[in-house]
Amino acid sequence: MRTASIDNRNFLLRRLHSLFGLLPVGGFLIFHLWENSQSRFGQLHYNEQVVGWLQSLNYLTLMEIFVIALPLLFHAGYGLVIIHGAEGNWYRYPWLHNRFYWLQRISGIGILLFLVLHVGWTRIWGIWQPEIKADLFSHMQLLLGNPVTFLLYLTGLLLAVFHLCNGLWTMAISWGLTTSVDAQRYWFYFCMLLALTLSAMGVHGMLGFIA
């Protein structure tokens, strides 16, 4: 019989999964949205004060691997395991949070596909074309100037923000932080407000590249 205790391997993996989803993956998402929102200050500011500052950090590659890439891979990989073992009850229980449960899983798959495109168009492409790294603002301006690419980035943005904020709501329940109905309701309101705020910041940043 399975028990929800620290002796249960699945219990520990799920806790690590949710923890990595918040920190550092969720934290990096918020930072990345803020970083891209600096596009509204123009090409020179973005390339020198934002991208240039990041590229000047010591041990940047190690931080990208151990603080971003590996936690993200674990979160995504175990998320796929959870999806594989989930029961299909979308129509059986037509409650809001049951729908959100499945949207959480669907958004995770969508985010993975988007990340492949985003990393390919920016980091991987920049390896073969150093001018992209030197002028990332112009590169993003060219990408987002295409309506199809803009729509893909907008979809990826909204999926990522929803995944983070809905994950925050469910994480508070699974970690025993919101045990009452009122606490869960008010925390849900906060998480949705955070989702709107982060979405607005992300869209603002996208528009800053092409305005």
TrEMBL record:
Lineage: superkingdom: Bacteria
Keyword Lipid biosynthesis set for record: no
Classification via Pfam families: Sdh_cyt
One cellular component (GO) term of this entry: membrane
Gene3D superfamilies documented for this protein: Fumarate reductase/succinate dehydrogenase, transmembrane subunit
Membrane-spanning segments: 12-34, 65-86, 106-128, 148-174, 186-210
Entry keywords, A to Z: Heme, Iron, Membrane, Metal-binding, Transmembrane, Transmembrane helix
Compartments (UniProt record): Membrane
Purpose: Membrane-anchoring subunit of succinate dehydrogenase (SDH).
Protein name: Succinate dehydrogenase cytochrome b558 subunit
